[in-house]
Amino acid sequence: MLLMRAIEADARRAGCAVTLARAETRRWSSATFTGARHALAIEAPDSPALEAWLERLPEAELPVRAQLVADLTIAGITREAGVARVAIEALTVGM
Questions:
Q1: Which of 16, 43, 55, 64 is in the most buried spot, having the most CB atoms within 10 Å?
Q2: β-pairing, 34-45 with 67-80?
């Protein structure tokens, strides 16, 4: 999944190691655009670097070939035993 690769690369640059736990993608379209809605669950060691990265992730420029990340939100975060589980929702549209 191209979006997840872009997220992983962005996390690495921020000093965070993230792992994809779950991914769901479904087609999406409007009157003028086609794309996909993504629901991702990632896991990572909880740290100040992770917190800073998650704070800026919705505004990050994520390069995804032939697509634009039109919207990305952090839908939820749970923390347990030093591990953060993060729900991410995103919309990509074709370019």
A1: 16
A2: unpaired
